Amino acid sequence: SVGGGHDPLLVLDGYEDDGIRLKCFSERLFSDVQLLWTDGRGHNVTGTPLTTGTTAANTGSSIILKPGSGNSM
Predict the structure, then answer these.
(1) Confidence (pTM)
(2) Which of the residue ranges 25-29, 33-37, 55-59, 62-66 has the most confident prediction, judged by mean pLDDT?
(3) Is residue 31 predicted with pLDDT exceeding 60?
(4) 36: nearest Cα among 27, 45, 26, 28
(5) Domain annotation for the chain: domains and CATH numbers
(6) Are 23 and 13 in contact (CB under 8 A)?
(7) Alpha carbons within 13 A on the beta-carbon side of 18
(8) What is the rounded distance in angstroms from the CA atom of residue 72 to the CA atom of residue 56?
(9) How far separated are the first and last CA of the chain, in Å rounded?
(10) Nearest to residue 58, comparing CAs of 6, 11, 22, 2?
(11) Residue 27: partners with Cβ closer than 8 Å, 6 or more residues away
(12) pLDDT above 90 (res 12)
């Protein structure tokens, strides 16, 4: 993969707030990491940063997919 890191890891983390929490973790060895969620229409979706153990070279974010929200990322 580009930058000497790993492909993003997507995790279905369980049910929460009438939806399903989806988490994404990404890592690069030599560059800053940017994580951007987009919906099925290409619009940006704001996620919640996961701050435990994150640095400029690795990051994580989560969102909750709810019924009626299009349910695609």
Answers:
(1) 0.67
(2) 62-66
(3) yes
(4) 45
(5) 2-65 (2.60.40.10)
(6) yes
(7) 4
(8) 28
(9) 21
(10) 6
(11) 5, 6, 33, 57, 58, 59
(12) yes
